[in-house]
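ESCALATION

Customer reports they have been waiting on this structure for their group meeting. Please prioritize. Original submission:
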Amino acid sequence: MNNKNTLMRNLFYLTFLLLTTIGLQAQKLAVYDLSTDHRENPLGIDNAKPRLSWKLRGEGRDIVQTAYHVRVGTRPDFSKASIVWESGKVSSPQSILVEYGGPAPESSRRYYWQVKVWDQLNRESAWSGAAYWEMGLLDADRWSAKWIEPPHDTLEKIPAPLVRKEFVVGKKVTTARVYVTAHGFYELWINGARVGEDVLTPGWTAYQKRLQYQVYDVTKMLQNGSNVMGAMLGDGWYRGLLGWTGNWGLWGKQLGLLCQLVVTYLDGSNDVIATDDSWKSSNEGPILMNSIYDGETYDARKEINGWNRPGFNDTGWKPVRVASHPMEVLVATETVPVRKVQEIKPVRIFRTPKGLLVADLGQNMVGWIRLNVKGNAGTTVTVRHAEVLDKYGEFYTANLRAADATMRYILKGDGAGEVYEPRFTFFGFRYVSVEGFPGDLKPENITGIVVHSDMKPTGTFECSNPLINQLQKNIVWGQKGNFVDVPTDCPQRDERLGWTGDAQAFCRTAAFNMNVAPFFAKWLKDLAADQYPDGRVPFVVPDVIRNNSGTSAGWGDVATIAPWTMYQVFGDKKFLRDQYASMKAYVDYIHKTAGDTYI
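Update from on-call: job pushed to the front of the queue and completed.
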């Protein structure tokens, strides 16, 4: 009898322990790393059926998702009244690109979503934290802004114009969003603070067919009373020199800005402050010249203090021109932004055999230099860029061809010191020569700012062979340097173009190293936009060569190879849907050209 009681008691304890363990494991079953259309909490998307992805973690082995439940609402607390769609419990292992199935999303509306899952033992996780996406302006009629153009010369090299607009906020603000793009580069400011962390915006597209706009949450940047929006414009890819044939302004020779700020108040009303003929402009700012190939010249003595703050006297500023450009070409940004991703300090500073002062960053990189300097007003510091030294140890720039690749900073004489880094250019380099620097050049005076599309790393490789490890390191740095909004061939000389053959050969490796899904989703649409009517694919995308030449194997093949590779790697059928017409047109062209001759 005692043995029977002991056995029952042991079974009870064992069952209790098992249930407790399962309960604890269920508590540790969790969902994380939520993303929408391959991006984390994107602002301003135009996909009416966003795809939702997540990852699963927990303790133990062989954990497998067997079901999920997604819910979407207009509030982060997911109150019952705010829910717009629930999937219910869906028996499926799918955890990537689950399509939103609710009512059509509204322009500018933010949607919150979360998910919970069940594993193979039917253990249920808690709801994940809330992620969100926010819709952009889904049709051209949503834009009340007008294109404005600061009057400037149509010469190839011009100062960077400034534009500004003051406005008043008189009520409690709940949300504020700014929608902005430009012909050329733009840098946007509100009340003296820079908007966002993105650089080289709005990016490089087939501008006359597709022009990206960006969306920023600027709620905390506004203040009660007087406010001001201001922007600085640069030539960029739109107006700047491109290619090696001396052409410039391929898409246009006039810089422009399109911007609207939507302010929603606590009482439910809203105001729209948009670019129109009430904005003012000046061509007297500090950036005297900017060019992707040639660099930037900045005269700090010409800085206009307070131009981007309320209360500035802009009496002498000129009115802008209102221009008419097609609004239908505007598209929400689909790719990841270009950003300052990393900082590098020099490993040595030395003199070449001919006496040139050079800083070695120790790594071939793409971006620019942040200069810390103190000296007399009018002193000019000239920084040139090079990838290598020649066999004599001298600074070597012959491979840059016609690209000047030089930044010049003219000091204003601030006794506390001055800090400068370019805005509207980038360089490919390891070495910088510094001329005119006042005093001794030290490592603290030079910082390399690494700039590229902000792609999340996904794969790494390391083995026992140091040479192979170095090769992989070089591949990753090559990707960083050549993925600056488009997949380029080189980042340093008078080229830096989106060669289709390079992208075709590298796209699979790129996808191993980093999450390039949004990057290629955007660029492949530009490929389709620039594709010739007969199906031929340009040798570079965006197409700046424009010589109506034929296509060729290896280059044009990117139209089919890249979408298929992205589908294989990311499991995203949208690549195939979006690119199908382009893929088919290219294959039909090849078939028509080859005829019935087979080798």
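Sent to customer with the following note: Residues 19-26 have pLDDT under 50 and may be disordered.
Escalation resolved.
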